[in-house]
Amino acid sequence: MKDKRKETFIFDGLGFPIKLINVPMKKVFDKWCIDINMNKLMLVVLEALIHKPGALTRDELSFIRSYLGMKMTEFGKAFGVSHVAVLKWESGKNRVSPALEMCIRLYVLDFLKAKDKDFRALYKQVSLEHLSKDKQRKIYRLTIDAATEDLKIAL
Asked: Is 90 exceeded by the pLDDT of residue 138?
């Protein structure tokens, strides 16, 4: 097995593209593969999505629900909606209201056992007004430095 680092790598294994930089690669059976801790990557992505300034996409909502290990019915009950509503969110037929999206983000913070200051930081970072104006669902690129786990969210 050989090792190398790739300057940039677009990873879409979570259902949406994530730009990884400084990615360790390993050659396995004559094929180059990323060599990172996937559990850690998913946690970093989850934390990034919570603080994303724009509205969550259908794929991001699906990732969050899957990460939490919840079926559509269970996820819907947690937020006072039916599994059909969750299905429509994840298929892109309906949009999550800004207030409910904020509840989802807060729920994830609680799931991660965040400290009170993290809840306040989210409230200051992500405004309901901005979420409600993000009707076109701007595409935010999530960039993660695989070497340091630093992340950036940019348009």
From this structure: no
